[in-house]
Specification:
Blueprint: E1 2-3, H1 13-28, E2 34-37, H2 49-60, E3 66-69, H3 74-86, E4 90-93, H4 97-105, H5 117-128, E5 136-139, E6 154-158, E7 172-174, H6 176-186, E8 191-195, H7 199-212, E9 218-222, E10 225-226, H8 234-243, H9 257-262, H10 267-277, E11 284-285, H11 288-299, E12 304-306, E13 308-310, E14 313-318, E15 323-328, E16 338-343, E17 346-349, E18 358-361, E19 366-373, E20 376-383, H12 386-391, E21 395-397, E22 400-401, E23 406-411, E24 417-422, E25 434-437, E26 441-448, E27 453-459
Parallel strand pairs: 1-2, 2-3, 8-9, 10-11, 12-25, 14-20, 18-21, 23-27
Antiparallel strand pairs: 4-5, 5-6, 6-7, 13-24, 14-17, 15-16, 17-22, 18-19, 19-20, 23-24, 25-26, 26-27
Helix pairs in contact: 1-10, 6-7, 10-11
The structure holds one RNA strand.
RNA sequence: GCUCCAGUGGUGUAGUCCGGCCAAUCAUGCGGGCCUUUCGAGCCCGCGACUCGGGUUCAAAUCCCGGCUGGAGCACCA
């Protein structure tokens, strides 16, 4: 089987489905998986993408047996293209596109169709030498086919834009409806899983298999995956990055795999979801809910817990002594160690506290709110016993000691920044670690600066 | 417009090929409960679907016809 992206950017969720499905089934049946980079349109090639795609696949846990780059195989395409002309199944067409389109719409062949093999080979050589403009090679199909796009569709075109890899070595490039069947056959594909947007292409490509007398692989088409939210169009992403609208290919607003990685989404979660969605032809809506649930399953057991207060408000507590708390880093796992919270009169909270009400500072004690002055809340120590808080239906709130509070910025999926403080021991969290800010959600530690830690929000 | 395809709970999925064991699977979500000093996790209970109409048949989610809805393609892109 194969995964055949166009190297115009890194992989996104849409590619992930194709890659995962092909990987899943090739493993299931002990087959091989080829990565075929389809770079036969010089205009749409982004040189960095070749490596980005390999990195993304590796991250996804997809094992590639072999990498094939189409721009390395130009001579092969020329060879088979020439054969088709020699067999009289293809011809060089110099009609202008509008004229051809009009003829095609009426099911009428153009004059080029019957020029004869000799003349066609002559023109073909001229094409390859760069002597011609506005010329294509067409496959003879059925000029009255009920789908006009199938009537003598083009298989080679002239493109003089330099290719990032081969520069100006070639000026004639195969169209995918030619390179795909040639490669699928030569590379020994038995099964191909692709989106249903290729159904018509499969019909076109069948002509090539038939003309060469090749056995056609099993082409299976799955439905469209509708993904709400992130930007997926490679060209839009690229333009946005160049404009400075996005921070890069891993901006949290984008649907690239590297953006998901940065947010703390595990490749296993993506893999699982994609295999679950499967290959049916009905269109499906991508469920973020299910992705997050799968991801939570993976990360929850390892994620250390920390207190984090967003939009911090300062609270001064009267009548309580300095004390030190040791809390577990994870409620169910002793092996993840403890963290220390030092209470010393001044704390931050996130909630709006109401005067006269009782609150329970989590793991600490109960307080009652006295007054609010100049944005600072004054509270009194009430009692230690948790039962009293229960009896009084006191809300249990998170708190952060003002001393040593870690200034923290969480960037959410809309690239919006949430500023707050995390407890002092959050400093021990490593870059790339996924932690849970209790009640806030799971975040991935992205960057640690001297005065601030930056995290990306994964999900609740 | 033309050609082709698909429709199972809020979402994803099993079952559709080869009709009965399907008053429909699993997950997620939602509601409730237990536990818990996270509104997390776990455990328990519950909610919720075969697009509609006709036909064939002893029997239809499954087969046939039609409607409706959704989608794909109709490039010198992939």
């Amino acid at each position: 089987m194969r995964f055949a992206p166009n190297p115009s950017g890194p992989l996104h969720l849409g590619h992930a489905r194709a890659a995962v499905l092909n990987d899943y089934f090739s493993k299931k049946y002990n087959g091989k998986l080829i990565l075929r980079l389809e770079d036969t349109d010089p205009k749409r090639v982004l040189p960095e993408a070749y490596d980005m795609i390999k990195e993304d696949l590796e991250w996804l846990g997809i094992k590639i047996d072999n990498v094939v780059i189409q721009s390395d195989r130009m001579d092969t395409y020329y060879e088979y293209g020439r054969k088709l002309i020699e067999m009289g199944h293809a011809y060089v067409c110099q009609c202008n596109p509008e004229k051809f389109r009009e003829l095609r719409a009426n099911g009428i062949a153009c004059q080029c169709r019957d020029l004869g093999v000799e003349r066609n080979l002559e023109l073909w050589e001229k094409m390859l030498n760069g002597e011609l403009e506005n010329t294509v090679v067409r496959l003879k199909t059925d000029i009255k086919h009920k789908n006009p796009s199938i009537r003598d569709f083009p298989i080679f075109r002239i493109e003089k834009t330099p290719h990032p890899r081969t520069e100006d070595k070639y000026c004639v490039y195969p169209l995918m409806n030619f390179s795909v069947p040639v490669d699928d056959h030569l590379l020994g594909m038995t099964h191909v899983l692709r989106g249903k947007d290729h159904i018509v292409n499969t019909e076109k490509q069948k002509y090539i298999f038939d003309y060469f007398g090749w056995k056609m692989p099993e082409y299976i088409h799955y439905g469209i995956l509708k993904i709400e939210g992130p930007v997926l169009s490679t060209s839009k992403m690229h333009a946005g990055i160049l404009e400075g609208k996005y921070r890069g290919w891993d901006d949290p607003r984008l649907g690239t795999l590297r953006a998901l990685k940065r947010r703390g989404i595990k490749p296993e979660a993506i893999y699982k979801l994609m295999t679950e969605i499967g290959i049916k032809q009905a269109d499906v809506k991508f469920s973020w809910e299910n992705l997050y649930a799968a991801n939570k399953d993976i990360i929850d057991k390892d994620a250390r817990r920390f207190f984090f207060v967003e939009n911090p408000k300062k609270v001064v507590i009267e009548g309580a002594k300095h004390r030190v708390l040791n809390l577990r880093a994870h409620p169910d796992r002793e092996d993840l160690g403890t963290r220390e919270l030092i209470f010393d009169r001044n704390i931050y909270v996130s909630d709006d506290l109401k005067i006269g009400k009782m609150y329970r500072l989590m793991e600490l004690f109960n307080i009652t709110i006295d007054k609010i002055e100049n944005g600072t809340i004054y509270a009194k120590y009430h009692s230690d016993d948790f039962k009293i808080a229960r009896q009084n239906k006191a809300k249990i709130i998170h708190w952060i000691p003002v001393i040593d509070a870690v200034k923290t910025k969480v960037i959410d999926t809309n690239a919006k920044e949430h500023i707050g403080f995390a407890e002092k021991d959050f400093r021990i969290a490593n870059i790339d670690e996924i932690v849970q800010f209790e009640r806030f959600g799971f975040v991935r530690v992205d960057e640690k600066k001297d005065d601030e830690v930056i995290c990306y929000f994964a999900h609740k």
